[in-house]
User: What shape does this take?
Amino acid sequence: MNVLLHACCAPCSTVAMERLIDAGHRVSLFFYNPNIFPTDEWGKRFEEVRSLGEKSGLDVISRGGDESSWRMMVEPLSERGEKSARCWICFAIRLDAVAGEASARGMQAFTTTLTTAPMKDSNVIFRIGRMLGKKYGVAFLGENFKKKNGFGRSVELCKYHGLYRQDYCGCEWSMKEAAARRKAKGGDEIG
Assistant: This one.
């Protein structure tokens, strides 16, 4: 099956790619993340996904832009924190783009690496994915990549590939929340 894999970042993509390819799927990566802040962070993450895709022989599709419309939708909920409606809207915006791209390219299915991260609610992502799959007429593969030690495996694969691992989801609010968690544990803030 031809699957368009939404790549939020290279670390989360590693285990998702491995599992989808091992299951016999033909995978293409789609990097669409208007949430990533600041701009140079977006560039770092895109380059890591592009490099990982190249090393793995996968097509990498990127769509930039839409930061202002993303912000308009998410900013009113900026103080809600991770695992809130702020994240759910962000997931829906990004997955809508992935489902639309998969449909436009005649692909059979789409999924996302968002379910690799421990902080993400896979059930919310699955509900959004199924709804968008129906909207675009493309199957949504509801894979929970954090299961079966998926996050741990992604850490191993990052070391193997020498990938940059960020410590926040991507938006400026998640960056601030990660800095506050580090500070509470006695660590340094992001500079």
